[in-house]
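Trying the structure run again after the queue cleared.
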Amino acid sequence: MAEPTRDDVDALVGPATPHFAYQLRARVLDLVESLPADHAVRRYAEEQAALLDRLGYSSSKAEEGPRAPRTSPGWEGIPSAAPADTPLPRNT
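Done. Tokens:
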């Protein structure tokens, strides 16, 4: 197999949804496990794996467009309104 590239990582992460975040995270980490720890693609893959971890506690990546303010009426009744950069708190 050829050495993984950023494009390979992006191909896995790009279509990610919360439902499949952890399966994709595992695939991303498997893809780069043979690369040295200081390899640029491995570091990028680890960053994307962290995004997928946050996405697992979110409702979307919400990377584009304006967001509805959390002060909107009824917001507290929308449990799925957590983007990946501010996911729901983890139950511990």
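The CA atoms of residues 37 and 56 lie 25 Å apart. Worth checking whether this holds up in the mutant runs.
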